[in-house]
Amino acid sequence: MLNAETYVTTGKGIGGRIRTKYEDFYVEEIPESFPSGTGPNTWLFIDKIGRNTLDVVLDIARELHINRKRTGFAGMKDKAAHTRQWLCVSNVEPEELQNLEEKLRGVKILKVIPNEKKLRIGQLVGNKFRILIRETEDPDADAQTSSEILSELSLKGVPNYYGWQRFGKNRPNTHKVGMALVHNDIKGAVDAYIGNPYPEEAEHIKVPRALYDEGKFQEAYESMPAGMRYEKMMLRELMKQGRKRGEFDEKAYKIALESLPKPLKRMFVHAYQSYLFNKAVSERSKLGIDRYVEGDIIIDNEEHIVHEIDPKTIDDDIKEFRVHPTAPLYGTKVPLAGGELGEMEENVLQDEGITREDFECPKTPRLGSHGLRRAMRFKIWDTSATATPEGVLVEFSIPKGCYATAVLREIMKEDVY
Predict the structure, then answer these.
(1) Strand 372-375 to strand 323-329: parallel, antiparallel, or no bridges (unpaired)?
(2) Looking at the DSSP assignment, which residues form a beta bridge with residue 61?
(3) Is residue 93 a part of any domain in this protein?
(4) Is the confidence at residue 348, as pLDDT, over 90?
(5) Are 201 and 139 in the same domain?
(6) At what angle do helices 186-194 and 174-182 cross, to 10 degrees?
(7) Tally of structural domains, the chain
(8) Residue 269: inside a domain, yes or no?
(9) Are residues 208 and 352 in the same domain?
(10) How large is the greatest C-alpha to C-alpha distance in the chain, in angstroms?
(11) Residues with Cβ < 8 Å from 125, sequence gap 6 or more?
């Protein structure tokens, strides 16, 4: 995990491999509520393999000839997995979706139910996972080790690191786009997203990126495969603005950036915040994630800051998961911890050559962030580990916004994607 260095469990890792097949990594949302059966908005419970959520909702919008803003989902699900989740299409009758499944690649529609309300980002409790870890040395012994580590995590909590999905594995640059925006470098942000090929990328991806870097925009656009959907979206708008304006000025690059879907645009600065958060969590975890340290900013399970700390009860409250130590998602208004912890958090910013005020992003203010304090650990429940002929099958549930790979990292003692 990018910028994550600290483990909190003592057991030796079992190693192994994950995601050998998409089906090895199963995720199912735990919803806040279920559709009622009546209302103007239609919810779809889908089963998908090898597709990310945003691509699916864009495909649905295209097939229904509607604006993508009429679609909704509670959480973004990864491409490299077998996942089940609810989607929503507003002001559409279920009958209008009868033939939709056959037009969607890698997607099955399991339920179609109307509801009064739309489905919005964040409206889920969490996710349950069933993950096969292949190629471990001794599945029986490794299942026992995994069970012990899961038990330890159930007591302590799991370091709340952001996983590689936040940044990209073969192309970990999402946070670099965000870094450019925080530095008010709009052209740099667009260049980082479209160009700058990475060695791990496939050759047919590296070629158009290199052409873009050479300023050969039309050639780059024409050589981009379908999978570079968002790069094409941005480059098409950039070329349009260049023709219209007679030059590729900052306004052209800004309009090109604005052509991306809102959830994707918001991810850039969030990814940079996540990159810095991982560093802060890694440093703070060395002092113990299930205990109070002088200067800690504590939040409760509603994510409200606890202003009055009782030294007699605070450690018990932390161990019972009633409250949690935090680390900063840096932004213009986020408070930093006190004492030496605050100095540690300030050092993370100094190492990047930025201040909290830089997250205002004055040239792209809608993408700026006030920041917040985020729990530096999360609770895990319904855990199990079982030996199978293929390896070790682990199961667990975690809250929304948390990464299963943070759990797997502790089990395997390896960087995992």
Answers:
(1) antiparallel
(2) none
(3) yes
(4) yes
(5) no
(6) 170
(7) 4
(8) no
(9) no
(10) 68
(11) 30, 31, 32, 399, 400
